[in-house]
Write a structure and sequence with these properties.
This protein is an alpha/beta fold and 316 residues long. It is 31% helix and 28% strand. 36% of the residues are buried.
Length: 316
């Protein structure tokens, strides 16, 4: 009987030793990754899982995904569910004032966000982002910052310069970051109506460098110039491109005011609820560089929204 007790005590001590060893390895690996991240060009990008026909996608693990840089397969260093989210809402002040009738659904969207979502609200005018409410976890407070756009009085605006202006002031965080942009996509500030806006590429590059997804929702503006058919087409194309290349989606239905924006909010909510943070080590050389990457999976009926390029920081 006594020998049995000794054996059981020995077995428990052995299990405790194994558990301590496992915990030590986990801490060691975590420390190793943090050290690697600090010294050798680690990159974190947001990956959004999308189910077939916009259905709820299954949960995915690190073993379910593969990462390619060009044709070369790259090791995924870390893959985890996005926890906290910085969600910014940027409203073009040149929009038709009737869009304010949709703010009830936008407020409901705010209130439906998880408690670890920080929401901010700003208005785009004169090439800047006028912040009405900085990032807060008080979603009711953020909802109070919604107001009617200025309409024609705010027509001298560039959604792209305003995006850049706001992104420059964002906190440096390893968490998920998204912008919901309500805009016609027309750049009145530059006074340019070229097919591709002159500030589009620089806006995309900044968002990619800061790992920010930009979800765009087309709303017509109050100016007559911006409602001409070819300019609407060009502007919507620019909005689509900025969303696609930052790992998000663009929403519009024709050139008029949508009857309701709620289906767009519901879809964005589903996307935000299925985001992961993927980390890997890339070689950005001495100065850093942008590089195209692909994330794929063998899981059935799942695809990913990812930025078209990521920025590989300079290696120390």
């Amino acid at each position: 009987m006594r020998e049995g007790v000794n054996f059981m005590n020995y077995d428990r001590k052995w299990q405790a030793a194994l558990l301590s060893a496992a915990m030590a390895v986990a801490v060691s690996l975590s420390f190793a990754w943090e050290t690697l991240a600090a010294d050798s060009g680690a990159v974190t990008m947001t990956v959004t899982a999308v189910g077939k026909k916009e259905t709820q996608p299954p949960a995915l693990t690190k073993d379910d995904v593969q990462l390619y840089q060009g044709k070369e397969k790259v090791q995924v260093a870390d893959w985890k569910r996005g926890d906290a989210l910085f969600l910014a809402v940027l409203i073009d002040d040149s929009l038709q004032t009737a869009v304010a009738s949709q703010w009830g659904d936008l407020k409901a969207f705010f209130m439906a966000q998880p408690e670890n979502t920080f929401i901010a609200v700003a208005y785009a005018r004169n090439g800047t982002a006028a912040v009405a409410q900085d990032f807060t976890k008080d979603h009711a407070l953020a909802a109070k910052a919604l107001r009617m756009p200025l309409g024609s009085a705010g027509a001298f605006t560039s959604p792209y310069l305003s995006l850049q202006d706001w992104m420059k002031r964002w906190p440096d965080s390893g968490e998920r970051k998204s912008i919901m942009l309500f805009s016609s996509g027309v750049d009145y500030f530059r006074g340019s109506f070229d097919p591709v806006d002159p500030d589009l590429d620089s806006t995309i590059s900044r968002a990619q460098k800061q790992n920010i997804n930009i979800w765009t929702i087309y709303v017509p503006d109050a100016g007559h110039v911006g409602n001409r058919a070819f300019r609407v087409f060009n502007a919507q194309s620019n909005l689509s491109r900025i969303s696609e290349e930052t790992g998000a989606e663009s929403y519009y239905l024709g050139s008029g005011m949508p009857v309701t924006l709620k289906p767009y909010f519901d879809e964005i909510q589903m996307h935000l609820s299925n985001q992961y943070l993927l980390s890997f080590v890339g070689n950005g050389g001495k100065k850093g560089k942008f590089e195209r990457v692909r994330v794929v999976t063998e899981a059935p009926n799942v695809e990913f929204l990812t930025p078209s390029e990521v920025f590989l920081p300079a290696v120390k």
